[in-house]
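Format is sequence with structure; example below:
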Amino acid sequence: MLNRALLAGLIIPGLILAAVTSDRKMANFVEGKRGTVLIFVSSMCPCTDQHKSEVKQLMSVSQSRGISYYCVFSNITENDSRIGQFYRNIGWDMPYVHDADGRLAKRFGASRTPQVVMLDSAGQPVYRGPIDDSNKNLGRIEHAYLRNNVNALLNGESLAFTEIPAIGCWLVTTSDLQK
């Protein structure tokens, strides 16, 4: 059984979350020196598999340069077992947050999975949208949105907030059901 721990030291103001911890143990949500990437995913969404190698490769070249990565599970259907299965299959070495009440999804406007919200070093959103456009192009990447934004941050370029509509599975949170 996975342990639950209070996610202490959360930098995003006003949010206190319960994080699921296990082999992806996470005591604190720590922003990267240069930026943070939140990847909203669902254990039940097959669309994420398309981005497996792109995210893994991007992490391998940018984590050591100050970019932090977190998977965020906000769907109402998520549980410890499904999250564990997702990690066994995806092969990403990043911590995750079980956003059981959907606060992170609501705060950052995540509505699909996979969908990325990228924060700059000051914790301000600079990008919200898909990882790339491979889901539209039968696996071929024409626009590497996340990679381009990560590279811009690493090169010291300032980014104006950009939003691109995400394509994927709907993200349904408990707050969506209360409307």
Notes: The chain has one domain: 3-177. The CA atoms of residues 74 and 104 lie 8 Å apart. DSSP finds five helices and ten strands in the chain. Confidence is low (pLDDT under 50) at residues 1-23.
